[in-house]
Design brief:
- With about 375 residues, this protein is mainly β.
- The protein has one domain: Beta Barrel (AttH-like fold).
- Helix content is about 0%, strand content about 55%.
- The protein contains no helices and 22 strands.
- Strands 1, 2, 3, 4, 5, 6, 7, 8, 9, 10, 11, 12 and 20 form a 13-stranded antiparallel β-sheet that branches. Strands 16-15-14-13-22-21-19-18-17 form a nine-stranded antiparallel β-sheet, with no helix packed on it.
- About 35% of the residues are buried.
Length: about 375
């Protein structure tokens, strides 16, 4: 008795001994929201120019997309690309943008080849210390799983070059941060069914990687509407010697800019296991708008189907953005930062403060889906 032939799901990834289920690597469970993503940013010593890159894989939607966004001379330039995945998750390229893992957990290369939109780049991100694994993000509203993902984060140096608006920028000794995340998050296959009436949309997210000369610090928090964290972590990393230290009892004190949901000043406080106090003071200088790499973008949001292959280009003046609009709510603020260590030493560096605040937040007076600070 012969078995009926079925179409093969084998891809190049199946040659590697990385399987964790009896399925081919092309199979990523049954949740349409499963994703796998690269993220990078890097900035000069004074915080501008800045570059950010994102690449996402959505196996159950058959899509891979990528974007690069450069802020230079007060303008944010963005190039987007999307293609059908066709099962091959190892080919991390959506022309003209590609990502190459040179040395796992240490060095990754990003290339943007020739294209009609005038943004080109070759950038190598090298970890300043081993990456950290953040606590697993599992968030439910009632019985519905909204997020279930793992993420590693690593502060980096960045070397290479960028071409934008007819100018070539040398990238030497820039600092920045990269992350890798994977799991379930609301993307193009998000559940469209309404929540029960007593469950209003709410999300409070801060993420802040600090880059100093002698220390790194990572902080993030997801809070509920009452201001209680459902996922919060902070880690202090000495460079060159010593082990990463968890920062305990960490909390953020925020002051918002009137007429926005963006932070004007932030102080992050906590203590080490021996009781020594750690403080990170942040002074946001300007905002990078995350829609430039697909987050909350109206038409080029992550995993949106654009056809077999497509690209898109746009640019805007940073100082002309209307920050009262929902699609400019999600930002990473370029910050001057000062880290105060337990012995009183103050280390000046830079940080990016990511902010996405939707719905109510009792500690800061937000009550509706998108009301603004007074």
């Amino acid at each position: 008795m012969s078995l009926a032939h079925t179409s093969s799901l084998l891809t190049a990834a199946d040659e590697y001994p990385v399987h964790q289920t009896p399925e081919p690597i092309a199979v990523a469970g049954s949740d349409l929201n499963f994703y796998d993503r690269f993220w990078f940013n890097a900035y000069s010593a004074d915080g501008q120019p800045l570059v950010a890159v994102a690449m996402g894989v959505y196996p159950n939607l058959n899509i891979m997309d990528a974007a690069i966004s450069v802020v230079h001379g007060g303008t944010q330039y963005s190039l987007f690309a999307s293609r059908l995945l066709d099962g091959d998750r190892m080919a991390t390229r959506v022309k003209p943008i590609s990502v190459e893992v040179v040395e796992p957990l240490k060095k990754v290369r990003v290339r943007v080849d020739d294209n009609e939109h005038g943004i080109r780049a070759e950038l190598v991100f090298t970890g300043r210390a081993p990456p950290i694994q953040e606590p697993r993000f599992t968030w439910r509203m009632g019985t519905r799983t909204i997020m279930d993902s793992t993420r590693l984060t690593q502060s980096c140096t960045c070397e290479g070059w960028i071409e934008v608006a007819g100018e070539r920028l040398a990238v030497h000794g820039w600092h920045g941060t990269r992350d890798r995340s994977w799991g379930v998050r609301s993307v193009g296959g998000a559940n469209k069914n309404p929540f029960p009436p007593d469950m209003k949309p709410q999300f409070f997210w801060l993420w802040c990687p600090f880059n100093g000369a002698d220390h790194l610090m990572y902080f993030h928090t997801n809070d509920n509407a009452e201001g209680e964290p459902w996922n919060r972590s902070a880690v202090l990393v000495p460079l060159g010697k010593g082990e990463p230290q968890v920062v305990l009892e960490v909390r953020a004190e925020l002051v918002f800019r009137s007429g926005t949901r963006h932070v004007r000043k932030a102080t992050i406080r906590g203590r080490l296991a021996d009781g020594g106090a750690v403080t990170l003071e942040l002074e946001p200088e300007w905002n990078f708008y995350m829609r430039g790499v697909g987050y909350t973008h109206a038409t080029w949001g992550h995993s949106a189907y654009q056809g077999a292959y497509a690209t898109h280009y746009e640019s805007f003046r940073v100082d002309e953005i209307d920050e009262t609009q929902p699609d400019t709510n999600h930002v990473q603020a370029a910050c001057r930062a000062v880290l105060t260590l337990p012995d009183g030493r103050r280390e000046v560096g830079r940080a990016m403060l990511e902010q996405l605040i939707i719905g109510a937040s009792q500690p800061y007076g937000f009550k509706e889906l998108f009301d603004l600070a007074p």
